[in-house]
Structure formats: structure tokens, C-alpha cells
Amino acid sequence: MLLRTRLSVLAAGVVACCATATAVLPAQAFAAPPVVTAGSAPTTTTASTTTTASTASAGPVGPAAPTAPTTTTGSEEPGEPAAPLSPALIGATRLLEEPADAAAPAQFKSLAVQSCTPADFAALTGADLVAFIKSSTPECIDSLYRSAGADPSIFNQARMLSVAAALKDVAANYPGDNTTGIAQLVKYLQVGYYIQFYYPVAAGAYTPALTDAVTTALDTLFAGTRWRDVSENNGRILKEVVWLTDSANVQAHYLGVYKRILDEYDNTYNQFPQMRSAVNSVLFYPLWEGYRNKDFVQALAADPSLINSLADFAINHRDLLSGPHSVLDTNAGNDLAKFAGTSPAAEAVAKPLVKKVLDSAPLLSPFGTLYLYTARQAEHFNYGQCSYYGICDLRNKLISVILPNQLVCDNRILQAQSLSAAELATVCESLRKQDALFHSVSKDSGAIPNQYAKTVTFGIFANKADYTTYSWAIYGNSTDNGGQTVMDATDPNKRAVTVMYRKAWNVNDPARVWNLNHEYTHYLDGIYNLKGNFDTQSSVPNKWWVEGLAEYVSYSHRGATDVDAMNQAAKHTYKLSTLFQNTYTNSDSTRIYPWGYLSVRYMLERHPADVQSMLERFRVGDYPGGYAVYNNLGTSYDADFDAWLDACVAGGCYATGPTSLFDTTVNGATVSLNERSVQTGPGRITGWHWDFGDGTFSDERSPSHTYGAPGLYTVALTTTDDTGRIGTTQGAVTTTALGLPACPEQRADALDRNCARTGRSATAGNTDYLYVYLPAGTTTLKVDTFGGTGQAYLYYNADTWASPKAYTAASTATGTTHSITVTNPTAGYRYLGLYAATDFSGVTVTTQF
Fold this sequence. Notes:
This protein has six domains: 95-248, no CATH class; 269-392; 395-533, Collagenase ColT, N-terminal domain (Glutaredoxin), CATH 3.40.30; 538-648, Neutral Protease, domain 2, CATH 1.10.390; 657-735, Immunoglobulins (Immunoglobulin-like, Sandwich); 755-848, Jelly Rolls, CATH 2.60.120.380. Helix content is 39%, strand content 16%. The protein has 31 helices and 25 strands. The strands form seven sheets. Strands 3, 4, 5, 6, 7 and 8 form a six-stranded mixed beta sheet that branches. A four-stranded antiparallel beta sheet has the order 14-13-16-17, with no helix packed on it.
């Protein structure tokens, strides 16, 4: 699961073939998924979290520290169980930024490749140091955040003064781009402040002389006009300069600059990703951190006009909230509400403006996210005015408005957005019956002593969109998932919560609540099987059990077949001994969920004594002992597990009744559906119902359907047998408007003449690489992308793998719809890259030549 976190403390305790052409492909700039051959285990695709919140430190802000890879689970998979979040400050969100040289590669291609270590800088001073910095790449200087701790002295004041003087010289004639090396100078100063803060003794003291020198250099830049250019090149520099004002702690001196940047922004900036980043740099760095600076607070009190600019920005740009740049608007609300608590003078100005923003953004409207961020900051920084704002006891207010339909179901509190009384009763009854199944599988002797959280709250949202928008603010869960359980059973003062949402086509889950029984199993497992808090429970590789049990109990309780697991079982991808080592960081969603189901089912059916031996250790907190039970089995069960998979696929793991199965064939905008469902046990299938995912339906057995627009759609088939039992299965299809066939190459990243590749995806900050071989005589290559969700930029390169760091043509418009046309290309390989400005999925790429 990729965490696009809005919570400053979210990281604390997150739980639960070959190409046919003969030419040689160049090495990719970033590792692309390798070709998976028969019998091999697919490589897990991982990505570090790139959206971060403001740190609690009062010092200069550096780049996010490298984090452990996170499992990409997709938008519908359950989230990892999690430890509950503290009621700490909700952080600002950072606009996802392109790499430092994304839009101006020509300015850096001429830079010589040179060594970039602290030792290289330590050998230089004065003009030699300045020349070396200018001749380095921005990436080189940025790398010093992570390596300069080895020799902080390279940022002593004498060196910093030399660089500040050089910055003043180049700032006097700033050309609006990086041809003078200004980016490297600014970055060096940024890093210096960061390193000196964390290594003050080794780096040496900084005196007011340095502050004066840096301020003089920045004043020189802002005295000109080119810093106001609306362009990618200037945006790249401006965002770094704004960051430097925060690093140097001179925010008070530049209130007018920040105000001008905010006031001059309009939606034409959105075609320039680096300009958007520059605007967000104001919101995220100096304005987010400025309240810690006494001079800034005093300056804001003396001239609060910046507060008016923030309010105007938040209200006038609410249209951003429905698109990929919503962070600009929510961060404006974040900062505005924070300023209301910085001083009485600021409060006097900000208070009515905060109220105005809140009133302009009603909950359950397209502007609801602005309300949430503004209200959370006002609650924290200006709580004395909560009655004026109408946000006292904000969490319960959100529940009353967003989740008004409630039912107490024994020790369960159901809080729902759209469930009727009858549907709430259906959910309650399902949970009651699940208890018995769980205990029959677990064979526990009751709750583990001193495991608290005996009451659990269910937050059930009407749809994915409202779940994503509101659940984090109410329950403190992450939302890049299909539901999540948040609990710490060792704390008697905390109630467990499990959060999820409904899906319209989902008739198999009670009251159409997606992952209801899966998440409830996590709660029960944490009370009856897994002693301790989340960190303790996660101290050994046991995710095969944690997620596999949740899947097994969920499907068994609902009398449903795990179709994904059956599809995977037929592939024999993993050995049981491999699955026993599952963690959230070494496994993708397929290995975690379908294969977790298979491993748990196998062990319960074939080796229940081993399961009980493991649980006996887990229940007393002996996780190494529990791990040893199955780890010591080694490969002894692998052969039997492999044979069991065959029996499973042959019908041994199918639920009694109908199992909905179908194949899809896509031709342009038309999808042909071939139903091949099976009936297990007595009876026969008598009814078929298709939900095409675009608001239309069919009761034909194997229909065709033409979509009105290209894109990614969820098709769901519900079958009914003559006893009334049902089975539901979903599948994703991507249609095109061009009627192009699928590309014939076996390799998934290979394109061909006049064809389409569907279902492309990548997590934020990563690039999905593709290539095409152009024969001699090709006059025009046209590449189009469309469909799916998220924000993807299209890059083209004639010589090497295309990415934001290496391209000769690009399209960076909003969304996933892009087009690039290249005329008179020579024969040979050509390269494409879809860069994930945010997570994207379901995108189609087509070629015409």
C-alpha cells in the first residue's frame, strides 16, 4: 500500500519473455520490472512514500529520509492493520515534485560527470569551491543531505559566505533559468543550514554575518523581474529559493514575496509542474514552519495582509479540489488556520477569514477536503475559538454529519454513511455469525489476558471517494486501500476501529460493504491470537497468517470462492516455505492476499496441529517461538502444498453454489464477455447479471458492451443458482476509442505498430517504461495515452529510456490524456516513459505509425 499520508505521525506504527528485435536495449535509468518467465516468482514492485508531512523539528527542513519500501496493494485491497495514531497535529501535504532537472535537461547535459563526495568539497574553498559547485549537478548537491554528515565542516561559515557572495553575483542578472548554476548555489546553502543544525559542533557556528549575506543575495534576486516568470525553468529555481528562505530562517523578511507568489497564481500555472511546486513551496516551507520564528510572528502581526492572501487563495481556487493539484488549496487552508493562533493581532485578522473558508466548504460537498484541513488546524492552533468556528469536538461533529446512521451491535458500534436500518441489521447479524466461525478456526480459549479494546467501532462510508476524503480525519487511518483496522489492544483507553466503504456492484458482502468480514477478522485476531501491540505482533514474518486468515475467514463466512486465489493457485508461483517469510515489504498484494489465503487454508486443512503450536506461542507474546514453529519446517511441506494446489483448483477449494467466472476480449470501445462460471454441489446456475461499471447492466449470459468513452472500467458478474445462492466476481477492462488491437509482443513493456497497451500503472515518483521498434521508412510516430486514474506525464526519448530526467519530447498536462507526435524518426528503438506525478493506474498507451 502506497501511503499518500495527510497525517504528520502516520509513519508511526503503520500495521496490518523476450523482444523480437535484435538490437540491444539500453540500461534503464531506474530498474523496470524484469520479464517473468514460467515458474519464476515475480519481483515485488515497491516505492518509498513521497508525500510527506512537515517535521516537528524547528530546524531547516531537508528531503524526506529514505524509507522502507511499502507494498503496493492497489486501491481495493485491504490496508495493513495499523497502530492507532496519536492526536498530534495534522501536517501539511507536499505537492509531488518532479526530479530536480526534469524540465530543463539541456542545461545539465553539458555538465561533466564528476566525483561528488564530501571529500571533494572539503579540498576546496573560495572561488574554487564556487566553481566546483556550479559545475556539479543539482542531484550532486542534493546528495549531500545524506552524505555530508561524514564531514560537516564542508559547510563551515567561511564556505557558506563564499557561496552566498556568488549567489548575489549571479542573482543580479538572473536569466530565469539555471544557465548560471544558480540552482546549485541555492541548494548548497540549503544543505548547509540543514547540516549545521544537526551537526553544530562539527560544522561550526553561523553568525549574523551569514544571515546578512544570504539575505542580500536573495534581495538581489527579488529586486529583478525574471523570478516572476511563469515557466518550468523559473519554477524549478523559485521553489528552491523559497525553500532557502525557510532554511535560513529569514521568513519574516519575505512576507511580501510570499504574498506576491500567492496573489499572482492562476490556473495557467498548472501546465508547468515546477511552477505549481514553487507555489506549494511557499505554503509548505516558510508559511508552514514560520510560526516557530518569533520575527516572522511579529512581522505577520504588523502586516497581516498575507493572511488575506491565504484566505483569498483558498476560496478562489476551490476548483483545484476536484483535480490533481488539490494540495495547493488545502495547504492554503492549513496555513491560514495555523496563523489564527500565532498572535492576538494575527488572530483578529485570521479569525473571520477562517470562518469564511469553513463556510465556503461544506462537508459532503466537492469542497469538503478544504473544510477538513482548515478545521483540523484551527482546532489545534486556535481551539479557544472553536465555538466561533463551530468545530468544538470536531471528530464527533464529523461523525454526526458524515456517518449519521448508527447501531450498537453488542460490543460493536456501527457508524455508517448510507446504510439503512435494515442494512445495519444485516451487517450486525453477519458479524455475530462470524464470531462462531472465527473461534472454530482459531480454537482459542478466550481473549488473551490484558488485551483490551473489547469494543470495536466500524466506520462504513458510502463509497471510495468519501472514504478517502473523510476517514483519515475521523479515525486516523491511511486511505490508499480498501479498508483498514486500527487498534492497540494493550492500551485500555483506546477503542479499536475498523474502517471500510461500500461498492455498488458488490452483492456478495453484507449490505455491499467491501472487506467487512476481512477487517473484522483482523480485530478478532488481535484480541484472541496475537498478544501485544502492533510492533510486537509484527516482529516476525507472519503476514501469511495475519492477512491469509482474514481472507480465509471472510470467504468462508460468506460462502464465496476466492477466485483470485484459484487463479494464482493454477500458476504454482510460490512455495509454501517462501510464503512463510511474507512481510509487507517483501511481498506484493498478490503474494499477501491470494497466496496468504492459500497458505492458511492449506495449513488449517493439512497441518492444524502446527497452526495451534504457532498460536500457542503468539498468544503469550513469544513471537520468535511462534515463528520457529513454521520456519523450522523448512521445505518439508513444499511438495505436498504444490500437489494440494492442483486439487484446490480442480474444485477442492470452490464454495458450494455458483462461482462467477468470465473472460474478456476488448476491441476498441467494445468488450466481449465470455461467461464460464461453475456450480459446485447440487443445483445449477439459472441467472446472470452484469454490471458494466458505467451505469448500465445486462442479464444476458455472455453479452458484448460498447462504452461511450475510453477508460478503465470494473465489470462485475453475479450468477444465481436455482436455490437462490449467488456468486459475484469483478474484473477490470480498459477500452480505447481508436479500435486498436492489443500489442502482440509477449514482453509487457513492448509496443508495436498501431496497437494498444492497457492497464499501465505506477506509484508516485516512479516511471512506467515502454519501448517501440520503428522500421525503416517510418515517417511519423504518434503516441497517445488516456483512461485510468491519477496523474501521469508522458515522456519520449529517441536514444535511451525516457523519464523526467531524460527526454526529448514530453506532455505534462493534467490527468492521463497525452499525445506526442514525432516526425521523420530514424529506424530503431524509441523509448517512452509514463512518470507518476501521483499514483496512476488503468492507463492505455497507443501507437500509430
